[in-house]
Design goal:
31% helix, single chain, 6-stranded mixed β-sheet, elongated, 12 strands
């Protein structure tokens, strides 16, 4: 009788019952016959509970990290990859054979890989709505693609404008608008970032990191003006597969 090697993986976050990751990896393990592999949600109210998960979860080999802990988890890690260090956010953790925790960022890879096919020569500048952990991976990917960007937040600060500053001229200058906030995520599907959607055109890309619902109000309103739209599902799939490679290398 062959002993089955147990490998546990999971998602670290808060209020993550809706999560894509558990369903995706559970299906992957079943369909690709990864016997002994399981995936579970670690839904914690505060990041201070994270060490208890590591201490009390045997056979844990890797974690994905989602809102709101992509930045907050960093002090608990032993090491960061070069990219995660530069980005300042972690969405993948590998637990080594010696029990060390190494943080990676695969968000930027997933975003970059999903955006690239949409790009045309006139797509030169991007607005990133939001300044949280997810926005940092987006910015890193745009840097690699040679696309200039500006952050948008509720309060203006260095390298960041506030929502009130967005007008027709902004849309003339920025051809890619990216929602990296959770605004519009299920169950709050009627919510949307407060920008002037009437200035979208068929020269614009509207990209929403949200995947549930598949078409947010942000995307619907942009599409109504002729913009090309993209949700975050492909990004999630690409980053998940990249995480799987990291856990198994």
């Amino acid at each position: 009788m062959v002993d089955i090697v147990r490998k546990r993986f999971g998602l670290l976050g808060r209020n993550i019952n809706y999560s894509f990751s558990k369903g995706y990896f559970t299906d992957k393990f079943n369909n690709e016959n990864f016997t002994g592999c399981t995936y579970e949600n670690f839904d914690i109210p505060e990041i201070s509970s994270f060490p208890e998960i590591i201490k009390n979860t045997s056979d844990l080999k890797g974690l994905n990290v989602t809102i709101p802990y992509k930045e907050a988890v960093i002090p608990f890690l032993d090491k960061l990859s070069k990219n995660a260090t530069q980005i300042g956010a972690v969405n993948t953790i590998k637990i080594t054979k010696k029990g060390k925790l190494k943080g990676y960022n695969t968000d930027y890879y997933g975003f970059k890989k999903s955006l690239e096919p949409l790009l045309q020569p006139h797509h030169k500048k991007a607005l990133i709505l939001g300044t949280g952990g997810a926005s940092k991976g987006v910015a890193f990917a745009l840097d690699e693609l040679g696309i200039l960007y500006t952050f948008v937040s509720r309060e203006a600060k260095e390298d960041t404008i506030d929502y009130d500053r967005i007008n027709a001229t902004t849309f003339d200058n920025y051809q890619i608008i990216i929602n990296s906030t959770p605004v519009g995520t299920s169950p709050n599907v009627d919510a949307f970032p407060l920008i002037p959607y009437e200035f979208f055109t068929d020269k614009h890309i509207a990209y929403d990191l949200i995947y549930n619902p598949a078409e947010t109000q942000f995307l619907k309103r942009a599409a109504a003006q002729g913009a090309q739209i993209k949700n975050g599902l492909d990004m999630l799939i690409f980053q998940a597969e990249k995480a799987w490679k990291i856990w198994n290398k």
